[in-house]
Write a structure and sequence with these properties.
alpha/beta
Length: 234
């Protein structure tokens, strides 16, 4: 066995931490990635938020997370689109704001016209999602971070809303590598600044859905129709 093949097999036997970028209702792409990744019970899937809205099947996308909780560890991070959904339920006068940002596609996928009629299991699950997650070497958030503020003191506005194109941070004071989504990379390629990786690769808009194993750097990608990208020549 070649050394590279041995290394990949060794890492596969270890616990993996795999981040998945903004799905935005592209359930077919998500299903293809999960089939290719084959998560094991000791693996951790960190989902970077914006799981819903814009794409055709938000309902199926959320249900897949619920189903996969029995097969591996799922760490969901809340994005600005989940926040808008929860706000529309709590404050109905904000409904039009959410609908204008893709919420109409979410309601259509559930077959309802009122977010208050969404399945309680799905809404209650989204309410449990956190703002960030960290390991010994990486931290994960939906949108952005402040480089000079400890992770446990960051504001939710930065975690969920601040685009990289408005405020590009430097390396975080922790020395850990940041993995984020939110700021769409319309080329379909990951933004790699060494200390920061943005893996929102614009699946719902004609790009790709990206999953990244942070230990090995292995990447999986699929388009909205579920077609896997061949990365063997990269």
């Amino acid at each position: 066995m070649a050394p590279a093949q041995f290394a990949r097999r060794l890492f596969h036997l270890m616990k993996r931490v795999i981040a998945i970028g903004d799905v935005h209702g592209c359930a077919a792409a998500l299903e293809s990635l999960l089939a290719a990744i084959k998560p094991q019970r000791d693996d951790t899937l960190v989902v970077l938020g914006d799981w819903i809205d814009r794409g055709r099947d938000s309902k199926r996308s959320v249900q897949l997370l619920l189903d996969w909780r029995e097969k591996c560890r799922i760490v969901p991070i809340i994005g600005n689109h989940e926040e808008m959904l929860l706000t529309a339920i709590a404050r109905p006068f904000t409904l039009d704001d959410w609908l204008a940002c893709g919420g109409e596609a979410t309601l259509r996928s559930y077959g309802v016209s009122d977010p208050a009629r969404l399945p309680r299991e799905h809404v209650d699950y989204i309410r449990t999602w956190g703002d960030y997650y960290e390991t010994g070497t990486h931290f994960f958030a939906h949108a952005n971070y402040a480089a000079d503020i400890p992770l446990n003191q960051q504001t939710w506005e930065f975690w969920r809303w601040e685009p990289l194109r408005v405020s590009m941070p430097g390396p975080h004071q922790s020395g850990k590598t940041a993995v984020v989504g939110h700021t769409s990379q319309k080329t379909g390629e990951i933004l790699d600044l060494d200390y920061l990786l943005c893996i929102d690769t614009y699946c719902h808009g004609g790009g790709l859905l990206t999953a990244l194993e942070v230990g090995t750097g292995e990447i999986w990608q699929a388009d909205a129709a579920g077609r896997l990208r061949d990365r063997s020549d990269r």
